[in-house]
């Protein structure tokens, strides 16, 4: 792993003021960043009125890194208050940043929420939580969060993942590895395009994990109309059910991804945008503080209308009974 030099996109002062005012106005009217039809309508209206420099900064990923960092609203470390001890107690803390993230997400595409995750909110709080130190979810800390496609178990998963940093005193890095940088032989590519094993719902989805339908087998890597696409989550893939040939190809893919992995240590106000079809992300281990000064990220998920990266067979998957909710009507 190397310390990354992620492409950085800046916003000029006028655009930052524009974004902040838009977010503050919506928050003042709604009084909360929790999901409501009125909030989503206000976000849609306001996002449509944002100026050209913001739109330009939100253009699609345009390098082989499959990601970029956007310097968005400055974060007032005192003003946002202490880091919540879990997503469940975060409520409306730093809500203006929730709405700014939702505005940017709406410029990039259509924000996505899950009925079974974080109360159906469109912006999630990612903080280390006591008792979850070793989990393979955003709430963990002391273990490596393995590289994964976000919500890989589901056909409605996001095209883009956004991680906005509120606080990160220990410079804990998010990891990212792009399939564009991986070199695999034709044989491995062909093997990994076969649907041989399922990807099971991760621990953040209690209800989906109890779903009693048969898990569909899915490909790991394929060529789509819009290029090579990856769907990868080794921590939730029962590889022992795959053929030795598949396991070997999967191992080579994992090794290659590890070799090209970069570390992005976000500073407050920075938003990491990851293309979820090209890049797997994770996080290095760290020691949680549990004193109100812990690392704190805001996460948004985005569907990009018109993307042709998903195989037609995904349309028949049950998604383990989980409903993906899009913020704005198509
Ligand atoms: O904490 C991080 O840097 C990434 C966590 C993660 O995988 C996520 O929020 O989806
Ligand atoms: Fe993730």
Tell me what the structure shows:
With 330 residues, this protein is α+β, with helices and mostly antiparallel strands. It has one domain (2-305): Clavaminate synthase-like (Double-stranded beta-helix). It is built from 7 helices and 15 strands. The chain has helices at 13-30, 37-48, 52-57, 95-108, 186-192, 206-209, 244-260; strands spanning 2-3, 8-9, 67-71, 110-114, 124-126, 145-148, 160-167, 174-178, 221-224, 227-230, 262-264, 270-275, 279-283, 296-303, 324-326. Strands 2, 3, 4, 5, 7, 12, 14 and 15 form an 8-stranded mixed beta sheet that branches. Strands 1-11-8-13-6 form a 5-stranded mixed beta sheet, with helices on one face. A two-stranded antiparallel ribbon has the order 9-10. Strand 9 (221-224) and strand 10 form a beta hairpin. The radius of gyration is 19 Å and the shape is globular. The N and C termini lie far apart (40 Å). The mean pLDDT is 96. The structure holds 2-oxoglutaric acid and fe (ii) ion. The site of fe (ii) ion has 3 residues, from loops. The site of fe (ii) ion (FE2) has 3 residues, from loops.
């Amino acid at each position: 792993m190397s310390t990354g030099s992620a492409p950085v996109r800046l916003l000029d002062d006028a655009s930052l003021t524009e974004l902040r005012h838009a977010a503050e106005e919506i928050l003042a009217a709604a009084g909360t960043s929790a999901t409501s039809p009125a909030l989503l309508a206000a976000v849609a209206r306001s996002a449509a009125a944002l100026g050209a420099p913001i739109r330009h900064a939100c253009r699609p990923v345009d390098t082989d890194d499959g990601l970029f960092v956007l310097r968005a609203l400055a974060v007032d470390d005192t003003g946002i208050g202490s880091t919540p001890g879990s997503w469940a107690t975060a409520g409306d803390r730093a809500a203006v940043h929730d709405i700014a993230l939702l505005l940017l997400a709406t410029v990039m595409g259509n924000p996505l929420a899950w009925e079974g995750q974080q109360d159906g909110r469109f912006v999630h709080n990612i903080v280390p939580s006591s008792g979850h130190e070793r989990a393979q979810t955003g709430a963990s800390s002391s273990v490596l969060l393995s590289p994964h496609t976000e919500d890989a178990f589901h056909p409605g998963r996001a095209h883009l993942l956004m991680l906005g940093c509120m606080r990160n005193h220990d410079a804990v890095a998010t990891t990212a590895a792009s399939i564009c940088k991986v070199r695999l032989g034709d044989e491995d590519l062909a093997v990994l395009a076969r649907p041989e094993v399922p990807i099971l719902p991760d621990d953040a989805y209690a209800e989906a994990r109890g779903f009693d339908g048969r898990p569909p087998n899915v490909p790991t890597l394929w060529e789509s109309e819009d290029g090579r696409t990856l769907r990868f989550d080794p921590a939730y893939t029962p590889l022992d059910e795959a053929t030795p040939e598949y396991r070997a190809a999967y191992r080579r893919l994992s090794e290659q991804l590890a070799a090209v992995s970069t570390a992005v240590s976000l500073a407050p106000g920075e938003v990491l945008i990851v293309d979820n079809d090209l890049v797997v992300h994770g996080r290095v281990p760290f020691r949680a503080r549990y004193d109100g000064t812990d690392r704190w990220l805001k996460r948004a998920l985005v569907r990009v209308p018109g993307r042709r990266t998903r195989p037609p067979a995904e349309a028949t998957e049950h998604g383990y009974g989980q409903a993906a909710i899009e913020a704005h009507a198509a």
